[in-house]
Design brief:
- This protein has four helices and 18 strands.
- The protein is α+β, with helices and mostly antiparallel strands.
- The strands form three sheets. Strands 2, 5, 6, 8, 9, 10, 14, 15, 17 and 18 form a ten-stranded mixed sheet that branches.
- The radius of gyration is 18 Å and the shape is globular.
- The termini are far apart.
Length: 266
């Protein structure tokens, strides 16, 4: 690895470690959600909390998938190591584009039980620590996690629909927010829709440092909805946490799958 790549990787590891001390949302934040014909799509990959965070450069070895979808057709979104903003590509095709970014596996060691408790409570798993300690009374807590981010961007007109692109956890809107001014959809998990599961909407107006959070719970069919936040950008977030087969204290005993979708209500 070159010195430059080593320095970039070290910076990102320190950045992610710092945000891992709290819940760590992961999302695509475009410079502009509404493009005109001929504009480049430019977007940051961000990690942080409450729709506020730091931009992460494109690191090839951490990316499992980087692509876009337009009218049912997939296209690659290539980038270069260390690129910041991480994503930049000329878009072709009028209407709605679904931008997708998926990470490889990451691992996290929790510093103490209260940190693990806070994570579970925030993401809708208030009994997470008691579940863990009932199986493992002592020892450290290791988790592996994957991030699955989408962003809805328009070029020219706003025609088109969000689609399910096959990620293990995925938020899929069943109405185009740019046309209907509605936020409603389905939360999908590895084995179908996720019922009775927390979904959070962070909304942020121009000039805001932090996003306002609203929580809801999916119904028996995995559906969710939120009021329309006129004049704000929106980050939808959902996390699935599940136990892994025990392979010893040095291996992760928990797995979290993080879904996000961003779009604009401006």
């Amino acid at each position: 690895m070159s010195l430059a790549r080593f320095q970039i990787s070290t910076f990102v590891l320190l950045l992610v470690w710092a945000f891992n001390l709290q819940a760590h949302e992961f999302w695509i934040e475009p410079a502009d959600y509404r493009l005109t014909q001929g504009d480049d799509m430019v977007a940051d990959i961000k990690v942080g909390q409450s729709f506020s965070g730091a931009s992460v450069p494109f690191l090839t070895h951490t990316v499992a998938r980087s692509e876009g979808w337009h009218q049912g057709q997939r296209y690659d979104i290539p980038s270069t190591y260390g690129a910041l903003p991480a994503l930049r590509i000329p878009l072709t095709g009028d209407g709605l584009h679904v931008i997708v970014h998926e990470t490889e596996e990451n691992t996290l060691r929790y510093r103490d039980d209260p940190q693990f408790t806070a994570f579970g409570v925030e993401k809708g798993y208030p009994d997470l620590l008691s579940q863990h300690r009932s199986r493992y009374p002592d020892g450290r807590i290791l988790e592996r996690y994957f991030r699955y981010a989408k962003s809805l961007i328009t070029q020219g007109s706003s025609t088109g629909e969000d689609i399910r692109v096959g990620m293990p956890i995925e938020l899929v809107l069943d109405s185009n927010p740019y046309q209907t001014q509605q936020i409603r959809g389905l939360l999908w998990g590895p084995d179908g829709v996720l019922a009775n599961h927390r979904v959070t909407a962070f909304t942020k107006a121009a000039g805001d440092t932090l996003g306002d959070a609203q929580h809801t719970t999916t119904d028996a069919q995995g559906r969710f909805s939120f009021p329309w936040p006129s004049g704000h950008d929106v980050l939808l977030d959902a996390v699935m946490i599940r136990a892994l087969p025990d392979q010893g204290e040095t291996k992760p005993r928990w797995e979290s799958l993080w879904a996000s979708t961003t779009f604009s209500a401006k």
